[in-house]
Amino acid sequence: MKKSTMNREMAEVLRRIRRSTKVLPIASSTPRASEARLAEMTEPMLTAANLPVPLLNQYRWFVRELARMYRTLYGRELEFVLSKSLEKWQSFGLEPNTLQFLASTTYLKLQAQATSKAR
């Protein structure tokens, strides 16, 4: 398998995650609620892409995995698991830039929500 490089935005998100000492606000959610929250963020993008249903479902499973990671991990552990997850889903044939876009966008949105609530 050819290993792809991280795009600039994803590399920056991984750096932020590595330095983070706080859990995301999704951590206090139930598994179902956290999955629904990320699905709400990503479903419009995924359905607009007009992907075949089997491929669309693979991206949805990736988003569910993101929800589990964001809910249970933070800091260096989240950075490591997220990078391995990106590699795993890429090996299943998903497009690396799309995976990185979904991961970085959802993380940044959750972080922004946490920041706005803290103010």
Produce a short descriptive summary.
The chain has 119 residues and is mainly alpha-helical. It has helices spanning 8-19, 31-48, 53-72, 75-91, 96-118. The chain has 5 helices and no strands.
Commentary on this structure:
Helix 4 (75-91) runs antiparallel to helix 5 (96-118). The protein contains five helices and no strands. The protein has one domain (24-109). With 119 residues, it is mainly alpha-helical.
- String of helices and strands: HHHHH
Mean pLDDT: 92
Number of strands: 0
Give the termini distance in whole angstroms. Answer: 45 Å
Radius of gyration from the alpha-carbon trace, in angstroms: 14 Å
Structural class: mainly alpha
Largest sheet: none
**Model regions low in confidence, pLDDT < 50 over at least 5 residues:** none
Q: What share of the residues lie within helices? A: over 70%
> What amount of the residues lies in strands?
under 5%
Dominant shape: globular
Number of domains: 1
**Total number of helical segments?**
5
Write the layout of secondary structure elements.
Elements: H1 8-19, H2 31-48, H3 53-72, H4 75-91, H5 96-118
Helix pairs in contact: 1-4, 1-5, 2-3, 3-4, 3-5, 4-5
Main features:
0% strand, mainly alpha, globular, 119 residues
